[in-house]
């Protein structure tokens, strides 16, 4: 609740600069996942709490993933180990078991990003993610993100914080969705913080072709989880890996280090096409468009975020004031499911809340 108290106080003092929304914020449920358990049992205590909602989630997925791909996904489940690397294949089997879902449906849920990040035929793009890296005068890096999604009312109910632990020690933490083995937002204390913003380019069939060609080993969320989980991988190693590892789908990857270092990686499926470093300014703002191009007038969250950051100034940037930036319309919008602010250089700091902003509804055609 520290964020909420600070938000109210700071937003009053900054009201002359920013239009800050005071939404109804709900604490994110907290869970611990024991990596020392057999993979099929790791998620049991978590997903049992959400099993009643799974039929609604599956119904939504059938609406956004083309039917031929749904058929293809479900057809590989009999030979899952040939397509999904371990331990994720067994985690998916366990999630299916404890949610009374089929393995195919669970796999489809885990591939939702990989099969929705493509060019949407020029439709208006509103209500998608925002990630921000900002450094204070002491060299502390803060990493904030809003995750926005089309069926936000449903996935708000699946949003959880998970501490992934081994031998009783936290390996990394993530804000994720119950039953998703990959992660889109996470932090390894003292290592790095990572967030994913969707990039819509290319054809959905290119995603599917790459999925088959790589044996689904390029699932974006799984690659990010593997990066966070590897204790031997430091910030520079992570940047190197995430610029070159083949992925099923295009994306923007935002990575913060434990010091005043960070990048936005613009990815296609095979490699990075741009790496934007935090070295000439004290912040980077990424939404869902290439930073070297102007954002579309129908979805300009970038400029309001930049205006808010400049109004606050580097002297006043903190985790709480960054939260205020992420609460400034249209950075915050009705598609915003959750907000996370983290700092891998300050390992005790990791805050996330589920958002219910009182804003006019937007025509949301993008995901994440």
UniProtKB/TrEMBL annotation:
Protein name from the UniProt record: N-acylethanolamine-hydrolyzing acid amidase
Tell me the leader sequence span. 1-23
What positions does UniProt annotate as the active site of this protein?
A: 129 (nucleophile)
Q: Name one cellular component (GO) term.
A: lysosome
Report the EC number(s), separated by commas if there are several. Answer: 3.5.1.60
Where in this chain does the record put each Acid ceramidase N-terminal domain? 27-83
Similarity remark? Belongs to the acid ceramidase family.
Q: Where are the transmembrane segments?
A: none
Q: Which UniProt keywords apply?
A: Glycoprotein, Hydrolase, Lipid metabolism, Signal
- Give one GO biological process term: fatty acid metabolic process
- Report the pathway entry: Lipid metabolism; fatty acid metabolism
Entry-linked PANTHER family: ACID AMIDASE, N-ACYLETHANOLAMINE-HYDROLYZING ACID AMIDASE
One GO molecular function term? Answer: N-(long-chain-acyl)ethanolamine deacylase activity
């Amino acid at each position: 609740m520290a964020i909420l108290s600070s938000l109210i106080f700071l937003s009053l003092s900054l009201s002359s600069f920013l239009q800050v929304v005071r939404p109804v914020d709900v604490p994110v449920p907290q869970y611990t996942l024991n990596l020392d358990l057999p993979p099929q049992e790791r998620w049991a205590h978590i997903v049992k709490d959400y099993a009643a909602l799974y039929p609604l989630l599956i119904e939504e997925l059938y609406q956004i993933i083309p039917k031929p791909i749904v058929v293809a996904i479900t057809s590989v489940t009999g030979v899952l180990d040939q397509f999904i690397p371990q331990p994720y294949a067994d985690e998916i089997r366990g999630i299916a078991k404890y949610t009374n879902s089929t393995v195919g449906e669970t796999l489809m849920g885990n591939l939702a990003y990989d099969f929705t990040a493509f060019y949407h035929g020029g439709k208006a793009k509103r209500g998608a993610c925002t990630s921000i890296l900002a450094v204070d005068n002491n060299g502390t890096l803060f990493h904030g993100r809003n995750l926005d999604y089309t069926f936000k009312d449903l996935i708000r109910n699946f949003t959880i914080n998970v501490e992934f632990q081994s031998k009783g020690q936290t390996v990394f933490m993530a804000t994720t969705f119950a039953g998703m083995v990959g992660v889109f937002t996470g932090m390894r204390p003292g290592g790095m913080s990572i967030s994913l913003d969707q990039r819509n380019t290319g054809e959905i069939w290119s995603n599917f072709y790459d999925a088959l060609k790589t044996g689904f080993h390029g699932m974006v969320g799984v690659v990010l989880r593997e990066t966070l989980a590897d204790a031997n991988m430091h910030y520079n190693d992570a940047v190197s890996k995430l610029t070159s590892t083949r992925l099923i789908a295009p994306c923007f990857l935002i990575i913060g280090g434990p010091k005043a270092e960070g990048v936005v990686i613009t990815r296609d499926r095979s490699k990075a096409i741009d790496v934007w470093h935090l070295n000439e300014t004290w912040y980077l703002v990424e939404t869902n468009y290439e930073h070297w191009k102007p954002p579309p007038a129908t979805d300009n969250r970038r400029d309001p975020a930049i205006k808010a950051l400049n109004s606050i100034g580097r002297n006043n940037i903190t985790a709480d004031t960054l939260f205020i930036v992420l609460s400034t319309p249209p950075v915050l919008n009705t598609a915003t499911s959750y907000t996370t602010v983290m700092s891998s250089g300050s390992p005790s700091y990791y805050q996330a809340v589920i958002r219910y902003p009182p804003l006019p509804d937007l025509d949301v055609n993008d995901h994440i």
